[in-house]
Amino acid sequence: MRYRITCLFICLVWISGCGQSETASNQPSVQQKSIVELSKKETIPASFFPDPVKIVSIGDSLTQGVGDSKDNGGYLPYLQNKLEKEPSITSVEMINHGIRGNRTDQLLKRLDKARIKEDIKQADSIVVTIGGNDIMKVFKQNFSNLELNQFDSAKIGYEKRLRQILDKVRSENDHAQIYLVGVYNPFSKWFADFYELDMIMNDWNESGKEIIEEYDSAYFIEIADIFEKSEEDLLYAEDYFHPNDRGYELIATRIYNDMDITTIGKDTLEASAKGDDDQE
């Protein structure tokens, strides 16, 4: 077991770098008079026009979009395009707070930044990608003496920090939908014999599922199967570790399919309506 995981780590280090119309008559019609009179009597509330839906993404390289050939933010533009085709959504604003290499401890600290806190507070939905670099840290620190129980120990800390991350998000925004994206094994296609890494990824994903279920309006997005079962080349050619454009497109499709579209922006509208009532 120790030899197999050590070999996997060596392979990992080698290939990764971790106009207005006119009427026939000049006289206004009855219908036109009614509209004019109505406009004098009533002012259309601001809440009649929906605010743009705001999606805030936080996390690691999957959020930053490492591997995206156009450097547009990975899965975000694909998700934005899908959401903007929804008849109930007028426009979508995507905010990217992803940093390559971030672990749970680093993301936890970044959540104290005023800009990120303000964006989370205004969000309709929040997408989180985190955990993969926590796993990689175990590899790097123990590559010469790797054992499965080392990942079990690290997972305890990961679970604690993940809860703290979600608690911070909820303290800033108690209504937004939260989506936690799972981790995946980038080597499943190339090193199928190293089943231990699949075991580790599956174990950590199960922890993510259990933790996210502790929160209201929070959901887990499974993506491991996308990379494991696809016949397509979904990895970035320069490192065979991060998703390529097609990989990010499939991740966006998975997130979109799991999103509760009917409630996105609902709280934004209710807040606007409440603001209108308060001003009367």
TrEMBL record:
Keywords assigned: Signal
GO terms, molecular function: phosphatidylcholine lysophospholipase activity
Domain SGNH hydrolase-type esterase: 58-250
Keyword Transferase: no
SUPFAM superfamilies in UniProt: SGNH hydrolase (SSF52266)
Signal peptide: 1-23
PANTHER family documented for this protein: SPORE GERMINATION LIPASE LIPC, THIOESTERASE 1/PROTEASE 1/LYSOPHOSPHOLIPASE L1
Name by which UniProt lists this protein: SGNH hydrolase-type esterase domain-containing protein
